[in-house]
């Protein structure tokens, strides 16, 4: 009943479109249990889309094994694809990351990642869908 108005799509539509697990993470800022994500161990080339709206968010090129139990990336594919918000819930000061297109909750970004960015985008596997293939979304004419 909080009446959060996400642009373009009502809560009911999200509920219909997403599985209960994805809905909880994307629309209610849930967190999947560590080590549960099916994309955690994906290391083949490809891009990661928002599970809510399909926006391309991350590339396998930037994925690394953080040991945290969640898929982790050193950067987003583009600075415009992912929005950041201060998050002071749970008594911590963190930076939440959301899909810029649909507002879906992705996870958090921490300043303890590896070079070259020093950033660790810690993302719920449930927020993403993986498209194997090329790790660059704009590479034309690639067929398999
Ligand atoms: Zn989205």
Describe this structure in words.
The chain is α+β, with helices and mostly antiparallel strands. It has a domain at 41-132: Metal Binding Protein, Guanine Nucleotide Exchange Factor, Chain A (Beta Complex), CATH 2.170.150. The chain is built from 2 helices and 9 strands. The chain has helices spanning 11-17, 20-28; strands at 46-50, 56-59, 63-64, 72-73, 82-87, 94-99, 105-110, 120-123, 128-132. The strands form 2 sheets. It has a 6-stranded antiparallel beta sheet. Strands 2-1-9 form a 3-stranded antiparallel beta sheet, with no helix packed on it. A hairpin with a 6-residue loop joins β5 and β6 (94-99). The radius of gyration is 15 Å and the shape is globular. The relative contact order is 0.23. The model has no long low-confidence stretch (mean pLDDT 91). Residues 50, 52-53, 55, 99, 101-102, 104 line the site of zinc ion.
What does the secondary structure layout of this molecule look like, with pairings?
Blueprint: H1 11-17, H2 20-28, E1 46-50, E2 56-59, E3 63-64, E4 72-73, E5 82-87, E6 94-99, E7 105-110, E8 120-123, E9 128-132
Antiparallel strand pairs: 1-2, 1-9, 3-4, 4-8, 5-6, 6-7, 7-8
Bound molecules: zinc ion.
Main traits of this protein?
144 residues; alpha+beta; Metal Binding Protein, Guanine Nucleotide Exchange Factor, Chain A; six-stranded antiparallel beta sheet; three-stranded antiparallel beta sheet; 9 strands; 11% helix; binds zinc ion
């Amino acid at each position: 009943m909080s009446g959060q108005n996400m642009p373009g799509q009502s809560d009911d539509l999200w509920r219909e479109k997403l599985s209960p697990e994805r809905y909880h993470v994307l629309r209610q800022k849930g967190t999947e249990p560590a080590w549960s994500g099916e994309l955690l161990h994906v290391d083949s080339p490809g891009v990661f889309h928002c599970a809510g709206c399909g926006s391309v968010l991350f590339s396998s090129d930037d994925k690394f094994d953080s040991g945290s139990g969640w898929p982790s990336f050193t950067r987003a594919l583009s600075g415009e694809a992912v929005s950041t918000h201060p998050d002071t819930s749970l008594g911590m000061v963190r930076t939440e990351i959301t899909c810029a297109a649909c507002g879906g909750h992705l996870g958090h970004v921490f300043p303890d990642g590896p070079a070259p960015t020093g950033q660790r985008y810690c993302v719920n596997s449930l927020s993403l869908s993986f498209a194997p293939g090329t790790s660059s979304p704009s590479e034309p004419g690639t067929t398999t």
